[in-house]
Amino acid sequence: MPTSTATRPSDDLTRDDRLELYYFARLTRDIEERLAVLYRQNKVVGGLYRSLGQEGESVASAYALAEDDAVAALIRNLGSLIVQGIRPRAVFTQYMAKGTSPTRGRDLNLHFSHIPDAGGPIVVGPISMLGDLVPVMAGVGLGARMRGRALVAMTYIGDGGTSTGAFHEGMNFAAVQKLPLVVIAEDNKYAYSTPVSQQMALARIDQRAEAYGIPHEMVDGNDMLAVYDASRRAVERARHGDGPSLVGVDTMRMRGHAEHDDMRYMSKPLLDAWKARDPIARYHAHLVETEIATETDLAEIDAMSRAYAEAEADLAEAEPPPEPDTVAAGVFAGDHFQPTVEIVYSPFREKRGTPRHAPASEAGS
Amino acid sequence: MPTSTATRPSDDLTRDDRLELYYFARLTRDIEERLAVLYRQNKVVGGLYRSLGQEGESVASAYALAEDDAVAALIRNLGSLIVQGIRPRAVFTQYMAKGTSPTRGRDLNLHFSHIPDAGGPIVVGPISMLGDLVPVMAGVGLGARMRGRALVAMTYIGDGGTSTGAFHEGMNFAAVQKLPLVVIAEDNKYAYSTPVSQQMALARIDQRAEAYGIPHEMVDGNDMLAVYDASRRAVERARHGDGPSLVGVDTMRMRGHAEHDDMRYMSKPLLDAWKARDPIARYHAHLVETEIATETDLAEIDAMSRAYAEAEADLAEAEPPPEPDTVAAGVFAGDHFQPTVEIVYSPFREKRGTPRHAPASEAGS
Amino acid sequence: MAEMTYLEAIRQGLAEEMARDERVYAIGEDIGAYGGAFKVTEGLLERFGAERVIGTPISETAIIGAAIGSAYLGMRPVAELQFIDFVACCFNILTNFAAKSRYRWGAGVPMVVRGPCGGGVSGGPFHSANPEAHFLHTPGLKIVEPSTAYDAKGLIKAAIRDDDPVLFLEHKFLYRRVKDEVPDADYVVPIGQAVVRRPGDDVTVVTFGAMTYTALEAAEQLAQRDVEVEVIDLRTLSPLDHETVLQSVAKTNKVVVLHEAQRTGGIGAEIAAAITERGFEHLDAPPVRLASLDTPVPYNPGLEAAFRPGVEQIVAAVGQLVEY
Amino acid sequence: MAEMTYLEAIRQGLAEEMARDERVYAIGEDIGAYGGAFKVTEGLLERFGAERVIGTPISETAIIGAAIGSAYLGMRPVAELQFIDFVACCFNILTNFAAKSRYRWGAGVPMVVRGPCGGGVSGGPFHSANPEAHFLHTPGLKIVEPSTAYDAKGLIKAAIRDDDPVLFLEHKFLYRRVKDEVPDADYVVPIGQAVVRRPGDDVTVVTFGAMTYTALEAAEQLAQRDVEVEVIDLRTLSPLDHETVLQSVAKTNKVVVLHEAQRTGGIGAEIAAAITERGFEHLDAPPVRLASLDTPVPYNPGLEAAFRPGVEQIVAAVGQLVEY
Ligand SMILES: Cc1ncc(C[n+]2csc(CCOP(=O)(O)OP(=O)(O)O)c2C)c(N)n1
Ligand SMILES: Cc1ncc(C[n+]2csc(CCOP(=O)(O)OP(=O)(O)O)c2C)c(N)n1
Ligand SMILES: [Mg+2]
Ligand SMILES: [Mg+2]
């Protein structure tokens, strides 16, 4: 694992960057905590799928992207959307199937897109069928190249998702075409109830990449800076025309597959062991230890994050359901439906264009 | 490449085994030569897909199987069917869409099965969609295990076929379930017109296996004994419960994709270089050099093979077309259609049960 | 006799077949320790062991491929798709390998592919599919969809004993909502037989699955207006039981074809076309199709309700037919 | 005006669109140096370069996925499937990702998926598919199938300019057998419009693709018996041009629906059902469906001929309708 090389991309992160990373992880968790409350109140339509314990890797990997790059999140990658500026309210309205949600109540949770014509972050939503985002994001990379845009496409895949044919075809195509694609492969120990040992005969998920001849590395997924470093290396390779990479993250799904899951199949000792490795707590401790922030600084961020999540949830709750008579519109072009998602910036940047980390050319790669 | 280990499985081959191997390769080529004539005479219905230059690997790999094992051939693996005892006439009738063909004229070329209830070789035919035979043969291995049969399932995949999602899913499933599956992956430089470099970003096809954590090796596909050795090692592993293996064979498709293919995209120097490495000529030279056979011995086999291929072709030609009114029968069970394929034995064994190579337990593995 | 849910009936039918015939086994994602996403296979792992209750990677094509290969070796696989929507991921191997095998080579593929279908539970565009029309056009494949616990058990047994591949659609809305009497004795519900759920002389409603209950509810309301609706539950969708349908239409002369999948290209087209072809002389009015809108299945409950046909539409359509 | 084959017309239409709009590009297996299995893309690599004529690995799902992703970035991919049969291998990503994208998110996927369909060339069970019915039931996807060179060029252009995914079925039997006049000027054949190929008052035959010629031949024979058949070539299969069909049926009062795919669950069911629904009062006889048998496509030419509907069956069916 090349994380021991002398210079780490994260060395270039400013104090604000580091605090922003913390904020994004916290906000991700706070949004989900709020969703869990709404779920228990029966205000979430359908299921709730948490990323508890994995917020760090989603946030830190997406943090390696530039503002105008493209990201495609799976259900447990809320953090990546928060980093790219998706307004939390949009997420709440999705879960509550509101008429003003990015899908106008037509699809669930993180299943939404944001594809501006030019400029601004690109978000491609998934379909439920796992694996398909890999070829689609390879296509985003291909399209970008053809349009002369130097963007990088990042997406995620679970240990389970790597077993799909679509994953294979997409990875291989990206490799042959040397597309600017970064795939974060999350070994979170389970796919629904299936342990990784029943998913693949591999000790390390990143070995999947060997079949495509693409660079890969495995990192501690609960060490946010390690994830950032590996992702950043992969993003730089992609940006410099060196093709796709796969970053394997070793992490743990700390809840059941969904909130309704009884978790009976999950190993208790494993859960306990990983509890001690909570990515946010670890990063918190790191910030304090390295004197980048005081407990008070972080408590302030915590409070800000929580208040924001709650305010956004409240706004979303007040939104109306969709009008039933809108149901048939928008199957084909020519209809009026053109959803928008509001892009927001963290208090650490506040406006578009403020660099959130050292520019690509200066980053250690 | 572990072909340099002290004992090679092929060390155990008897003189008859070695001559039989030669005979099977010759017969494969002779059948195809005859098919080419029939094709030019417009007696073949549809296309003709040759295995010229690859007969050696199909024959030598299947030769590592036991008589009652299961094999699934692709279009260029006629040799493997000949080894397992499929009567050449069946192949000719298939190509000529005869009513007495194993599919009664319903499907083409090597698209046929032979699945005896117990005992005898199992042949599973392909569908045209590449890749699917891998999960299906994994299933044959699974079924065998459940039925308490110690058989090994072998199938083939082209460089192109390894890019399909079905290949991936099948390999991974076989690996996780430790199924008795051997996959021969043929790098024959092209998939239709697509060079391997546009198919995968890999120098060696066997590296595909890395994604599944299964043993693999790469062999000179035009060295019949090398192919036999590697296949035999894989077959032994499978038979002993050690799960699937992949054997990569480095070979060359010496004709176009099909007889109608203009071959204009094929590299002439590459073709010339491989011409000098013809597997049958090389094996012929080896047999003479090692004094296992004289030129005369081999000329006799040549003549026998050619005569047999011609006689079988003539028999097939005389067969009737299917009755048009049989067209609707046999979609569901309860219909009368139950095709059979005649299993024959080479002059080197002549009858079922004659061992064609040293029994599994004694073979070097 | 025991009262049990639709879901329990499937589980019991599957378990009985596994006990009866050691060639029967279950394969699918999360079907082992977890008992499947909907718990249909709960307890099977404990009872039959990991050799016969095989949890798989997320690989629908491998699941079906493994089922096919093992069926060639004499096994009788029952493959679960976690949601029937994922059948899209194995469309090729199911329609091209499994369904065409017998016709091409005489090699039957006795296998059941089962999974939860249907909407009404806010599943959204990828967890609400009613895919029968995609497979109706696949010679070699049978399709069944029970609406009662009795039929669920009888049909799963029939499907497992069938020598050809059967797509077994389980309506997830019914899993725990429907409960009825199921005999203790071994029985099957033969594939290919529809059933009249409610007799009536005025208008026939042909339907299946969860819509059977919607039709019965509408029939109840219409009866109060002295309109007697005959409700036919097809149970098997391929091959269709044209006989039962035609007999009813010969009596009522008016028919509504009702299903939950989208309208265009749906199974209703085949049913309506077949009725017209065979029963034109009996028809006093054109067969009316009631189905969902031609959109993906929307997630929001209000939208989904607007998308799907309901009691109201049936009552209205029957009312119009009566007037016709 | 220039006379050219159906195949050349597609090639020309594609090339013109690539020249007109740099966002249009081609992707598929062997479409580059080899020019595609049927040579439809011959010369495009030389003219437009490897950046816009992308040969791919054997990965249909990756082809469609790449097309979708690039379409999100503003490109207009034209994806070739070597045989349309292989659409089964990307069924999921095409029907679930591409077709549902606009409805869910408002993100259109302007893309053409084209490939050779159809039988009559001894292609056997996996190289003869007419898959329209599998996709008719997919809201969000359009389907076209030209029967003339003129339409082939006009429709490929319309498909490329369309803002939604279009499945473009090219009948391989027609590739080199059909030749007609194609204007030099830029033109499109609008998606959604059927055309009357031969006017007639007695019986309507609704068909498309290669069967158009079979129908015309039958009409010719029937004319000698003073039976005047009106032949409608649908050209677009989704959305269907019900208007043109109904107008004809209102005149003839009798209709044969003819297609090459298997009968059960075929597009003929939808057409027949829609005619009955909307035109019941005009019908003097039930719409008759003529289609292939419900089996996989057999390989042997004699079997395939017995499998497919031919001139004889059309003549017989029309004859019966006239007598009805
Ligand atoms: C093709 C496909 N098959 C099955 C499912 C059902 N399913 C949804 S999530 C899930 C488990 C996913 O596991 P993994 O990829 O490891 O991601 P994680 O939930 O652990 O983040 C399954 C089986 C699906 N979504 N897609
Ligand atoms: C899924 C699928 N896509 C496309 C094809 C069309 N096709 C038939 S053979 C072939 C090339 C196969 O190449 P390879 O796997 O390398 O085998 P080879 O012909 O070289 O032996 C292609 C693209 C197919 N059969 N299946
Ligand atoms: Mg996981
Ligand atoms: Mg090849």
Describe this entry's structure for a reader.
The complex is a heterotetramer, with 2 copies of chain A (365 residues) and 2 copies of chain C (324 residues). With 365 residues, chain A is of the alpha/beta class. Helix content of chain A is 36%, strand content 9%. Chain A contains 10 helices and 8 strands. Chain A has helices at 15-40, 55-62, 78-83, 88-95, 133-146, 165-177, 224-239, 268-275, 279-289, 295-317; strands spanning 70-72, 122-123, 153-158, 181-187, 190-191, 194-195, 216-220, 245-250. Residues 360-365 of chain A have low confidence and may be disordered. With 324 residues, chain C is of the alpha/beta class. Chain C has 2 domains: 2-182, Thiamin diphosphate (ThDP)-binding fold, Pyr/PP domains (Rossmann fold), CATH 3.40.50.970; 195-323, Rossmann fold. In chain C, the strands form 3 sheets. In chain C, strands 3-2-4-5-7-6-12 form a 7-stranded mixed sheet, sandwiched between helices. In chain C, helix 6 links the parallel strand 6 (142-144) and strand 7. In chain C, helix 1 (6-20) runs parallel beside helix 6. The longest helix of chain C is centred in the N-terminal third of the chain and has 15 residues, at 6-20. Chain C is globular and about 60 Å long. Chains in contact: A-B, A-C, A-D, B-C, B-D, C-D. At the C-D interface, helix 4, helix 5 and helix 9 of C face helix 4, helix 5 and helix 9 of D. The structure holds thiamine diphosphate (TPP) (2 copies) and magnesium ion (2 copies). One thiamine diphosphate (TPP) sits between chains B (76, 128-130, 158-161, 164, 186, 188, 190-192, 253, 257) and D (29, 58, 60, 82, 86, 89).
